[in-house]
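Workshop exercise sheet. Pairs work together: one partner reads the sequence aloud, the other fills in the structure field after running the prediction. Swap roles for the next sheet.
Pair: D.N. / O.F.
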Amino acid sequence: MSLNGDEELNIEQVYHNLHSEGFGLPRLESFKMALQGFNKLKTQGLVTKNILTLIDFSLSANVKRLWVIDLDAETVLLHSLVAHGKNTGDEYANSFSNKAESFKSSLGFYITAEVYNGKHGKSLRLDGLEKGINDNARNRAVVVHGANYVSDTFIQNNKRLGRSLGCPAVPLEITDGLIDTIKNKSCLFIYYPSVSYLRSSKFIQS
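Structure field:
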C-alpha cells in the first residue's frame, strides 16, 4: 500500500483517536487499508453510512477479529468472533477464492446491502466491489449471518471456531444488532496480507 504523507497522517490520527469502549483495537496496518478504501468509496458515493466493518483474517479464528467502527464518533461499537470458509483454513485462514462452490472466503471491500430472512434467520447481503476477487459474493450467497458454531463454547469443545461455507458468520446473540447497524450501504473490508490481493486492489493503492 502506498499513501501520501498527509493521508497516512490523517488515517493514523483517526486510529489513535479511536475510543475502544473496552474493546481491543484492530491492528494499525489493517485499519489503514480499511480506512483508505472507505474514503475512496465515500468519495465515489458508494458508501452512505460512516460505519466501517473490518475483519482481519490474518488473526486466529479463536480470537475476536471483527470490528464495527463508527467513524463519526470515532468509537468501536462492536468487537466479535467471526468465521471464515471451511476451505479457507482451520484455525488460521490462508486460502481465498471468488469461485462458486469453493467454500472459501473472499478478501477485499464490500458494500452492505439488503436484509432478508433465510435458512440462517436474519441475514445481510453483501456486494463485492473487486473484480475477480470478491465480485461473485452475491451470486455465491456470501452474506453476514448468525451461527451457533461461532461461539466460545464451540472453541472450547473443538479447539477452534466453527467454519462457514464462505460467509463471515457471527455469533447468534449479536446478529440482529450487527446487521441493523451496518446494513444499507456501509463498508465492510476483509483483510489478509496477501501479496496478490495487495497488488491488484484498486482501493488500497494511491
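Discussion prompt: The chain has a mean pLDDT of 95. What would you look at next?
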